[in-house]
Design a protein that fits this description.
single chain, 77% helix, mainly alpha, 6 helices
């Protein structure tokens, strides 16, 4: 399985992160909680617009996916599990903002679900291959043992 996120997944993550919170401080709290600290979060300029903050953070993570793949996966999972958009609904033009966030999260969730299914199918195929190899090894060992017995 690939050790990098697809560009579609990166784009969907970035879009969803940009719209699930209206206020930057709420987004920051979510990211700190999801990533378990502030070291990555503090690398971006929080004086920038929210979309730029998200873009900068995702760029940091994607530039070095070998190092940050775990963090990217944590964010994918955390954002795709987002279900409560009531904090957006209370804002001015809240129903539209909540709808936009729900759609962005749904698109991300669909990508994550498809990926998870592919990973599961690959695991199952690997298990089947291992089981078949074990059967073949057992057959060979039995055949060799019978051959040995026949010779003696």
């Amino acid at each position: 399985m690939s050790k990098r996120l697809s560009p579609l997944a990166v784009q969907a993550l970035q879009e969803a992160l940009s719209v699930v919170y209206w206020y930057k401080q709420d987004l920051k709290r979510f990211l700190v909680a999801a990533l378990g600290g502030t070291s990555l979060i503090n690398r971006v300029n929080w004086d920038q617009p929210k979309r730029q903050i998200v873009s900068d953070l995702v760029e940091i993570l994607c530039t070095n996916q070998e190092h940050y793949l775990g963090e990217l996966r944590i964010l994918l999972k955390a954002v795709s599990e987002f279900r409560d958009f009531s904090h957006l609904a209370r804002l001015e033009d809240g129903p539209r903002k909540a709808k936009e966030a729900k759609e962005a999260v749904r698109q991300l969730r669909d990508l994550v679900h498809t990926h998870d299914e592919l990973v599961q199918k690959e695991r199952e195929a690997q298990e089947r291959r291992k089981t078949e190899e074990l059967r073949q090894d057992t057959r060979k060992a039995v055949a060799a043992g019978l051959e040995d017995l026949a010779e003696h």
